[in-house]
Amino acid sequence: MKEKKQNEEQTLVELDTYLVSGIHIGTKYKTGYMKEFIYKIRHDGLAVLNVQKIDERIKIAAKMLEKYEPEEIMVVGKRENVVKAVKMFGKATGAKIVTGRYLPGKMTNPSYGEYYTEPKILIVCDQWNDRNAIHDALKIGIPIITLNNTNNTLVNTDLVIPCNNKSKKSIGLIFYILAREYLKSKGKELKMELSEFQK
Q: Is the pLDDT of residue 151 over 60?
């Protein structure tokens, strides 16, 4: 029992908080790229992601982000289920966000005027849906963090956070932790509740 408590204290949030969010629930389709993050396959065929590895990757992502100022960070999320979490992250940290359709060239074409932006690091919520942002980031050579489910690849990413990227609660938890850790690194405190990120 003591050992379990010790392990829980080392994670960014309690293991139960991770599990309740469904962050570990993968899909029935599994790419070879994501094999290292899969803990087991359930009897119904769904892959279960390793929560410890998820926690480790969120820690690495948080460390990467703390090197940047808010206006140098961009988060892109096209799917409806990520919009609230992405907006809350932007509100909490001051990072640039794009929800809904991403306009190709936003990072590469200065003629876009006020729509043009020059981030120094990019986070995307889905490799396929947010691929236009990834293509722009590759052109300007900035680090890319992707939230990947078991059906994604490791192509065109500098850091993968394995997770259930189809669930509001899962995505909300990730952005809540990242916002909290980012603000902590800047000597500030997150004044928002987890529930606000998971709506």
A: yes
